Amino acid sequence: METTLARGAPAAAPPLLQVDSVTLAFGGVRALSGVGFGVQPGSITAVIGPNGAGKTSLFNTISGFYRPTGGSIRFKGQDITHVPAPQRARMGLGRSFQNIALFRGMTVLDNIKLGRHAHLKTNVFDALLYLGRARREEAELRRDIEERIIDFLEIDHIRHAPVSALSYGLQKRVEMARALAMQPEILMLDEPVAGMNREETEDMARFILDVRAEWGVTVLMVEHDMGMVMDLSDHVVVLNFGQIIAQGTPAVVQADPEVNRAYLGSGDVGALRRKLHAGARETA
Fold first, then answer.
1. Structurally, how many domains does the chain consist of?
2. Which domain holds residue 140?
3. How far apart are the first and last CA of the chain?
4. Do 270 and 193 share a structural domain?
5. CATH number at residue 265
6. Is 239 helix (H, G, I), strand (E, B) or coil?
7. pLDDT above 70 for 232
8. How far from 240 is each of 35, 67, 92, 254, 265, CA to CA, in Å?
9. Which of 182, 214, 230 finishes a domain?
10. pLDDT, tens digit, for every residue of 244-281?
């Protein structure tokens, strides 16, 4: 399926995020080696690869949880290679996690509100006494979350439910809501449909498309569901053993023999396409 950045921003626009020659090592083990790619504003970019390829390590490096041993990361033209993770969140990098990282004893609403914490300006004194600024910020935060995010993700019926009482699919949706509460310019989704059934996967795919179309949020995701990746993405980056072996439109990536060898152990392009088409039918 041929796709271009015309679905989002013009291809000529400078990248919103630029990863240049990034290397990450843990002792003598290299998790990433010379990784480089750009994320265009308004696009959906997917990072794919076999298990252990380095996808989550790349996400953790971009979001600031890991510091690269080489290379650089630029966001909106600014070098953020050594910027701490909380500051990157304030700058506009919001993310979800492969393993759900919600506070299970708290309600859905309270979990989502935590996503805005990095942007709050209330000091400790105001917060303790719940003075004017703290009260105004709380009211504005709650209104924004309830009128925009909760409504957008169709979770109004569970807003006061404890996270521990929710199904896995709904917990993943709440985690996406918390990431959106961070007011991101780039929404980083780490395996957003992992473990979901067909209906939940279809819903999440719709939300990803809508958050780009309606909110203008750029999406960078790691995902194993190849049917979904090929249907939604403008640009696909393929990792294997910590290195990029291919990148381009879904059609270009599907036709690359190196991608086929990474997934199938052979250069059989037809076999990979049949696999991808089968995944697309399952999520259609």
1. 2
2. 101-182
3. 15
4. yes
5. 3.40.50.300
6. strand
7. yes
8. 11, 20, 28, 15, 12
9. 182
10. 999 999 999 988 888 888 876 655 555 555 555 555 55
